[in-house]
Amino acid sequence: MQILTIATRPYNDQKPGTSGLRKRVPAFQQPHYLANFVQSIFDTIDAAPGATLALGGDGRYYNRDAIQVILKMAAANGFGRVLVGQGGILSTPAASCVIRKYRTHGGIILSASHNPGGPDGDFGIKYNGSNGGPATETVTEAIFAASKRIVHYRIIDAPDVPLDMPDEYKMGDMVVSVIDPVSDYAELMESLFDFGAIRALLSGGFRIKFDAMHAVTGPYARDILVNRLGAPADSVMNAVPLPDFGNGHPDPNLTYAHELVDILYGKSAPDFGAASDGDGDRNMILGKHFFVTPSDSLAIIAANAHLVPGYKQGLAGIARSMPTSAAADRVAKVLGIPSYETPTGWKFFGNLMDAGKVTLCGEESFGTGSDHVREKDGLWAVLFWLNILAVRKQPVETIVSEHWARFGRNFYSRHDYEGVQVEAANGVMKLLKDSFTSLQGAQFGHLQVKLCDDFSYTDPIDCSVSTGQGIRILFVDGSRIVFRLSGTGTEGATLRIYLESFEPDTSKHHLDAQEALATLIGIALQISELRKRTGRDKPTVIT
Ligand code: G16
How many Å lie between the centroid of ligand 1 and the Cα of residue 426? Predict the structure, then answer.
């Protein structure tokens, strides 16, 4: 095996964001760009000689090229085996499952999640540790530091290996195992959910539609929903992963998953609809003419977990990201279990799950999951809902309204301003921080500000501190406005405004969230001077 040591120079922009390094494809195609980052990972993670690595991605443009480079670099860096998904495919939750099941020294996942793909679209890369979860901030900071001092990387000179059939190949001294990307994950799902009950539901006339959005979950959904659970083949749409996601934006929300939304809000709509994103970790849940907000979905999953075999023994606790609504906290309180509030980013849940402190985690950004893996998991959430529906035999809307009647409703919405000029977005955030003193105690109609701060978090397990995680304007009645800059965009800045108010009165639960939150929306625009500073008169996406 000939190991080549290639001289290189640092790029100074390889700082991982909320979930790994995400850039436009042409950025990754710059000379040595990908190799620099991969070597920085290998230099940081300290794998023993002969260690095993998992590798796969969401099938987007540049996935296959990157896999061949990473395999050759893994061989040159002393790995003994790489488990790579057939066709280069592994959904993010499936990668986490493979890492855990085969006890690998972590894995490399190639994805820019819900961001568009194609030659001018986005690409991404991240490292997950041996617990199957995204690397902690300490590790991502160390990878970034390594990327700034890199002077060479190691790669072997070898031909590409075929990826299209499960098989084993030698690459230098290393074994490449091309594995079925679906079966380990599907078996894990069968161990958690009552497939018999779901099969009975689906054979009894209950109709579902799952939109894979031309992204990675197509093969998973076909195997699980159609082959194993007996749903008709046309229950899964856009099921073939395409490198450019069919020119779409594989983000399962009301704006970008409009094809599915039109079906669920149309005539003769199915009883249940769901979509997942580019790499299969996000989910959107719909009933007939009905949308379940991700924050409510987490709370409802928690409140009904006793109906599901894998969770009927009880939950240790529930964690949610700070901007996620407090609906799940109310359930935790009634169940008598702890709830945790972390910064945005699934990586912050890993320590809590590893320490056995939480079973369920969720985020407003269409992410829900449990300690079965260490990533959020789109199809898992779909199966959880189907299991609940199979037991309760009620429409989605009834389950949600009964939940609100019992726990109260947290009206919730997120307004995203995408592709804003970075300076304008930073100006909005600075203005808000500078206004903390004058906002404290300020009265806006019936709402009074109780507290303003920039959220910081001390991890209860490793005591690491993360600051600057979002500006919170908290009101005396429990309402709140949160401002945050996204850490996953690749163009300009994405400014997110999260709005929440609590309504115990059942007679008001039918209100539209935008209507119920109108006063808070007005306050948010006023105190941020957002329209003036960004030139935008409405959000790009409302969820
Ligand atoms: C990633 C993270 C999530 C986070 C989301 C949005 O999701 O894994 O934890 O909530 O980004 O982050 P931001 O608000 O910073 O854009 P994904 O699905 O993109 O990997």
Answer: 20
List the domain boundaries for the chain: 3-181, 185-407, 409-542
Which residues have CB under 8 Å from 143's CB, separation 6+?
Answer: 14, 16, 37, 40, 41, 44, 127, 135
Q: Which CATH superfamily is domain 3-181 in?
A: Alpha-D-Glucose-1,6-Bisphosphate, subunit A, domain 3 (3.40.120.10)
Q: Confirm or reject: Cβ of 347 under 6 Å from ligand 1.
A: no
For residue 186, what are its two tokens? 């599907």
Q: Is the pTM of this model over 0.90?
A: yes
Give one DSSP letter per residue of 452-515, joined into a string.
Answer: EEE--EE-TTT--EE----EEEEETTS-EEEEEE-SS-SSSEEEEEEEEEEE--GGGTTS-HHH
Looking at 231-306, list the stretches that DSSP marks H as alpha helix, in order from N- to C-terminal side. 258-264, 294-303
Task: Give the whole-angstrom CA distance, residue 5 versus residue 76.
Answer: 9
Query: In this predicted structure, what is the pLDDT of residue 489?
Result: 75
**Is 370 tagged catalytic?**
no
Mean pLDDT of 331-346: 97
CB 118 within 8 A of CB 28: no
